[in-house]
Amino acid sequence: QVQLVESGGGSVQAGGSLRLSCAASGRTFRSNYGMGWFRQAPGKERDFVAAITWSGGTTYYADAVKGRFTISRDSAKNTVFLQMNSLKPEDTAVYYCAAAVPVRIGYPFRDIGYNYWGQGTQVTVSS
Question: How confident is the model at residue 54 (pLDDT cuts 50, 70, 90)?
Fold first, then answer.
């Protein structure tokens, strides 16, 4: 019912920046709605990165990215963004956009709290 499409991934050197976008379509948004970003590196589990509530704009961040990443949304365009600055090699991963419709147990930090997922976009940071 909800389709999510990520874009903006690529390869950068350590210290560089990227901005990821996630466009949502297929459903009229409700106030009790949240979106988030997760990432998964080769051989590792999928980890929480950041999340935002759609109505209030409350944000959440993993400790590893606080001060470097910023999540935001454009409600008119049904799009969520992840601005990534001061990138490190350990940020290398496939980044996934996810939606919780509605917000459920597990949101915002656990992937079981989300019921829609994008295809992912690769981010590679070289040292």
Answer: confident
